[in-house]
Amino acid sequence: MIWSVVNDVLKTIPLRLLNTHTGVLCNRVAQLSHFRDSPQYSQLLSQASTRDGQQLEAWIREMVTAFFQYASLSHKWGDDEPLLCDVEGVSVYDLVGKAGLAKLQKFCLHALKRDCAWAWSDTCCIDKESSAELLEAIGCMFAWYRQSAITIVHLSDVSNSASLVDSIWFKRGWTLQELLAPHRVLFFTQDWSPYMNCESSDHKTNGVVLKELEKATGIGEWHLQNFQPGTVDARSRLQWASTRSTTRAEDIAYSLFGIFDLHLPVLYGESADKALGRLLLEIISQSGDVSILDW
Fold this sequence. Notes:
Layout: H1 2-10, E1 17-19, E2 25-26, H2 28-36, H3 39-47, H4 53-67, E3 70-75, H5 84-87, H6 100-113, E4 118-120, H7 131-147, E5 150-154, H8 175-180, E6 185-188, H9 207-217, H10 221-226, H11 234-241, H12 251-254, H13 272-287
Helix pairs in contact: 1-4
Protein name: Heterokaryon incompatibility domain-containing protein
Domain Heterokaryon incompatibility: 70-161
InterPro entries: HET
């Protein structure tokens, strides 16, 4: 039963995760090895006989989920981010050189501080040389941010005295789902200070920060706190994205697949118009709402 639950939990999380204790990138085999050697696994084995039925399975799931909980990073990519090839087989805490390494190291330490033994960053935890893995990651991205215990947002262009409203993070296409998908979000400024010096466990529950988020995004408080993917009120969802941009033109459509809970082929090389056309056609097909054509 333990391993059945483990396999079930692992289906919902990224293939590669950084171990925040060691700084080492772990694939699925390494993650399973860490679990097998953990005090939690020993506790499950030694105490399983004291529980039975649904109580036993629920307890196992709680323990396994807690062991594999991870933090996700949301940020604007810089010019020199560490990639998979830079971090494989070494500890990220020992690396120097690339400008983005300091950000990755700070992220892992903040994740560890918040009891997440694992951390996920889109810069180095995806093999972008593998088109199959990259396309799978794009399709799973929304779910991975939603499944994370917390999403840590680094606003590299916001000083301690500035407002997050002016950050370019709110103008990027992919960060829309990175704001809406997670249940818990924490914002950090340039020097990795908590935004507004607020040591909250979740900025989505902070009334002042919520007002700023509404101003920056045009998204109401209810959706910021309780967003559900789907095609309901699709026109508003498209309008949230209308002022955002992506480096690759097609990504403006691909970055919305998770928002609408749609699974469509990712076809890099098609135009942005064709990608958006496929997206709009599928939304209309599922919702019957033709008003989205005027979004």
